[in-house]
Amino acid sequence: MPHESTLVLDEVPAPNVKPGDDARVAWRLERAARIEANHRLRISRSNVRDVRLNASAQAK
Fold it and tell me: CB–CB of 12/33 below 8 Å?
C-alpha cells in the first residue's frame, strides 16, 4: 500500500461562478472548494494511515 503522503484525490469541481457574480462571492466559493478539498485529503490520508497501522499490527 502506498504511503499516505503520495495520495492524490480527484479534483473538487470548480465552484459555479456565474457572469455578474461579485468577486467576493467568487472568492468565497473558491475558498470553500479549497477547504473541502483539503478536508477530503486529510480524511483520505487518515484512512490510509489507519489501514497501514492495522495491517502492520496484524502482521506482528
Answer: yes
